[in-house]
Write a sequence for this structure.
């Protein structure tokens, strides 16, 4: 679940989801190292990964290109949290104690209601300071 030192983790996010945009900004603020690249699921990078249509519509999908590994739902959240500053890294360890079926069910519940509680963003990419623009690719 941990990429090699030179690997980047690409986070594909739902560009129509306000919660996803907030998650992207949260990750940018709490990154320990510059390991993440962000791309909307409507972009060309997402279409290039194997079986991408299987993951379309999920709010967050993580992909380690050098290992050709896709993480979705709870596994994606745990992977991202693992690469953030403490205390969020510790949260990934706690989530590892939760059975995948339960964690994915919680993820699905939040995914179903996310559009009701979070305003739809104007564009596919969150509005972020210029210093973070280097982390976004299509």
């Amino acid at each position: 679940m941990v990429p090699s030192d030179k690997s980047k983790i690409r986070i594909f996010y739902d560009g129509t989801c306000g919660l996803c945009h907030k998650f992207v900004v949260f990750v940018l603020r709490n990154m320990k190292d510059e390991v993440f690249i962000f791309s909307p699921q409507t972009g060309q990078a997402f279409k290039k990964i194997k079986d991408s249509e299987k993951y379309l519509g999920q709010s967050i999908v993580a992909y380690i290109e050098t290992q050709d590994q896709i993480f979705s739902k709870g596994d994606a959240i745990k992977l991202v949290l693992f690469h953030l500053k403490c205390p969020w890294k510790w949260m990934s360890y706690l989530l590892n104690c939760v059975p995948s079926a339960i964690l994915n069910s919680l993820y699905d519940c939040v995914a179903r209601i996310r559009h009701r509680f979070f305003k739809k963003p104007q564009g596919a990419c969150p509005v972020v300071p210029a210093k973070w623009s280097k982390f976004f690719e299509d």
Q: What stands out?
A: Residues 46 and 52 are 6 Å apart (CA to CA). The chain has one domain: 9-117.
